[in-house]
Design a protein that fits this description.
Largest sheet: 6 strands, mixed
Order of helices and strands: HHEEHEEHEEHHEHEHEEHEH
Number of strands: 11
CATH topology: Rossmann fold
Oligomer: single chain
Distance between the termini: 19 Å
Number of helices: 10
Helix content: 40-55%
CATH class: Alpha Beta
CATH superfamily: von Willebrand factor, type A domain
Radius of gyration: 21 Å
Strand order of the largest sheet: 6-5-4-7-8-11
Length: about 300
């Protein structure tokens, strides 16, 4: 992203926008413009570089818009020709209703992890759709599984976004037997994005992640967090509620802050270690940061890995 480029969509703006396709298109197109020395091409959200035109290159590969700006001929290089399946997996358990620091929880109108995740996945779906990749969706909660098979085409993309926008949270992460019949669809030539806060009771989310890993899949864990979780900015007596168990605890914020921060750091290190052992790429998305910043960091990291 250019140093002077302003964030496209910040959390407060996103919280007030209901048109998910418009947000996805706006963020994706601005993001790709920010990566101005690269071009979306090939499959799996990969980006290839421009190169100078050489005799014999197909005229259809020339980027005429870039020619108009630079008065030089450049062609887009494709890294791969075959398409893959892009799977968008969303944790829809109640803990994903954690609000951002800028929100007002009492109003129930603010921005939370689940909102952020849906817009992030919608943007990934837009990029994948423009690359003609097949896109599938799986929303995970104990009450219901929102499933859409991996297909191509504009009509499927639009239908998937409607399903994503209408998805709601349940109580807890689903049991393994609820997920079993969907796993076979996802284990062939797939790039799988799993968005979650990865809060779990009995290692159920990591076990699910492990079941996705195979020689024919690439799994990317996108961990959602907020500034409040990182800094524990609370003061005085405060009552916390576990959104999934509904248990309440009244504490003195000053008394528990240091222990909380140590415990969270220990938990974070354990999650990171689990992903490393499973050879799963691990990205962290802060819902108090602009959406395009998260995506830019991810895509830039993938370019460096290539």
């Amino acid at each position: 992203m250019r140093p002077n480029m302003q964030p496209l969509i910040d959390p407060l703006i996103l919280a007030s926008i209901k048109d998910m396709p418009l947000v996805a298109k706006t963020v994706a197109q601005g993001l790709l413009h920010g990566l101005h020395d690269s071009v979306q091409r090939g499959t799996g959200l990969e980006f290839s570089q421009y190169r100078a035109y050489e005799p014999g290159d197909a005229l259809g590969n020339i980027d005429w818009k870039l020619f108009a700006r630079s008065d030089r001929y450049f062609v887009r290089e494709a890294e791969r020709e075959s398409n893959i399946n892009i799977w968008l997996v969303l944790d829809a358990s109640a803990s994903m209703l954690q609000h951002s620091s800028e929100s007002e929880p009492e109003s129930h109108q603010g921005w939370h992890k689940f909102d952020y995740a849906k817009h992030l996945l919608a943007t990934i779906a837009y990029i994948a759709h423009k690359q003609s990749d097949a896109i599938g969706l799986l929303g995970l909660s104990s009450e219901t599984l929102n499933f859409s098979p991996a297909l191509t085409g504009k009509q499927h993309w639009q239908k998937l976004l409607v399903q994503l926008s209408q998805m709601s949270t349940g109580s807890v992460f689903p049991s393994p037997h609820m997920l079993q019949r969907h796993l076979s669809h996802m284990q062939s030539n797939s790039l799988i994005f799993v968005l979650s806060d990865f809060y779990q009771k009995d290692n159920e989310i990591i076990d699910f992640m492990q079941s996705l890993v195979s020689k024919r899949t690439e799994v990317i864990a996108v961990q959602l967090e907020s500034d409040d979780e990182l800094t524990f900015p609370y003061k005085g007596q405060i009552r916390f509620e576990d959104r999934e168990s509904k248990q309440h605890v009244l504490v003195s914020a000053d008394d528990v802050k240091s222990n909380y921060l140590v415990a969270r750091q220990t938990w974070q290190e354990a999650i990171t270690k689990s992903f490393s052992q499973l050879n799963i790429e691990h990205c962290i998305a802060n819902i108090d940061q602009p959406l395009d910043k998260t995506l830019h960091q991810f895509l830039a990291a993938r370019q460096r890995l290539r």
